[in-house]
Specification:
Blueprint lengths: L5 E8 L8 E8 L2 E6 L9 E4 L3 E5 L1 E6 L11 H4 L2 H17 L2 E6 L5 H8 L7 E4 L3 E3 L26 E3 L3 H13 L5 E4 L18 H13 L4 E7 H10 L3 E7 L2 H10 L2 E3 L2 H9 L8 H23 L18 H12 L1 H15 L16 E5 L15 E6 L2 E5 L4
Parallel strand pairs: 1-4, 1-5, 6-7, 7-8, 9-10, 11-12, 12-13, 13-14
Antiparallel strand pairs: 1-2, 2-3, 5-15, 15-16, 16-17
The structure holds zinc ion.
């Protein structure tokens, strides 16, 4: 994509920082936001997009996706789909995310370095990606997809898709972390508690010992990476935070003391509400065994309350979707469900500047001068109608890295 000079003119400016919205314009040039205000200059050669009746806001950020989970039943994916098919489906999912307004995603397990390069170099269209590579899990943990009677080798030799690195004990874990770093991970993702989709573990249990988690964090941080921990119950959240994990993923059963601990230690929460709540509302979609369906229902019960607890205790709260396979159609629900708890304005901040800060990219997710030119134009006002977010038909224009990816003519 070549860089352009773009004026998004006369829309409702929603800055992503939670500031008061105002009628104004945004000038983007040299890949960056150059001016934001009531009026902006019109350099020669600028493409002017009339945004009357529309909102101008930062490109959305999703802090927890699995682009490689092209099936809801992802535990079986590498048995039934060849890598070639999975790769092409992943390209389609990435394009979909850009099309509905995401300009950055953090893949919490599944996409490898090749996808990151392909996006970076424009080989395939999509948001920019921050990747963890394979998810590190203990034997029988949330990344071990074997059923009880399956005694096969748990190590998955696929390069990408929904792939896990099964490792136990401190020396195996050092090697597992080093291997993901060697393969190009931007951060390390670890399963620190049970989860819904795994067939043999309990949702309420902490996985890995404190000693093991501490080794994972040590190995990651010495190499300049941070650790993101999948953890639902407070016992697992507290242990992961104690070990030094920087982000807690899901956190469905976050209680008040653990929220205080997170705030004290500066650990951020990335709730993923839609994946649990919507799945619990649609059990007919799942061919999962009854134990898994029951775990989804249990996890859904806590998801919304945990968001409220985290906000009330001053935890940095981001936004992730964690949707699998065709559940990707539920992306708008992540924002709608969040808004039921904290309101539309805070839901927009979570998916823009709060996510950018949690992901260590303060140059994204906000309409500030000097930030990267990742900007959306949406038909209508998402502060009044949050369901406009992440909906293809609501997106008028998308600017990524200062270039128009799509701009529909005025209707
Ligand atoms: Zn996930």
């Amino acid at each position: 994509m070549s860089q352009e000079i773009i004026v998004l003119e006369g829309g409702l400016v929603v800055d992503g920082n939670g500031g008061e919205p105002f009628a104004g314009s945004v000038l983007i040039a040299d890949g960056l936001i150059q001016e934001v205000g009531d009026r902006v200059s019109h350099p020669e050669g600028a493409v002017v997009v009339d945004c009357t009746g529309q909102a101008i806001l930062p490109g959305l950020i999703d802090a927890h996706v699995h682009v490689g989970a092209t099936m809801v039943d992802f535990g079986n994916q590498s048995r039934v789909k060849p890598s070639s098919l999975v790769a092409l489906e992943m390209a389609g999912r990435l394009r979909h995310m850009l099309d509905v307004g995401y300009t950055l995603i953090r893949d919490c397990g599944g996409a490898d370095w090749g996808f990151k390069v392909a996006l970076d170099e424009g080989v395939i269209p999509g948001p920019d990606a921050i990747i963890s590579g394979r998810i590190i899990s203990q034997t029988g943990g949330h990344g071990d997809m074997r059923a009880r009677a399956d005694h096969s080798d748990p190590r998955d030799h696929h390069e990408f898709g929904m792939v896990f690195s099964i490792a136990d004990g401190t020396s195996e874990l050092r090697r597992a972390v080093r291997e993901e770093i060697r393969r190009g991970a931007d951060f390390i993702k670890v399963m620190a508690s049970g989860g819904a989709a795994s067939p043999t573990d309990r949702l309420e249990c902490a996985q890995y010992s404190l000693e093991e988690l501490t080794v994972i964090v040590d190995e990651a941080t010495r190499n300049g990476l941070y650790v993101a921990a999948h953890a639902l119950p407070s016992v697992a959240i507290a242990q992961a935070v104690e070990a030094g994990a920087r982000t807690i993923e899901h956190g469905n059963f976050l209680d008040e003391p653990t929220a205080r601990l997170m705030a004290d230690r500066g650990a951020a929460l990335v709730p993923t509400v839609a994946t649990y709540v919507m799945a619990a509302r649609h059990p007919e979609k799942y061919s999962d065994p009854p134990e898994v369906v029951a775990k989804i229902g249990h996890a859904a019960e806590g998801a919304m309350a945990a968001v409220e607890v985290a906000y009330r205790h001053g935890v940095a709260v981001g936004s992730g979707s964690d949707l699998l396979g065709d559940e990707i159609a539920w992306l708008p629900h992540e924002h709608e469900l969040r808004a039921e708890v904290v309101g539309n304005g805070a839901a927009i901040v979570a998916a823009t500047s709060a996510n950018a800060d949690i992901l260590g990219r303060p140059d994204l997710g906000r309409l500030n001068v000097g930030c990267r030119g990742d900007v959306l134009v949406v038909r209508g006002n998402p502060l009044e109608k949050i369901s406009l977010l992440a909906r293809r038909e609501a997106v008028r224009a998308i600017v990524k890295r200062g270039a128009l990816w799509r701009c529909e003519e005025r209707e």
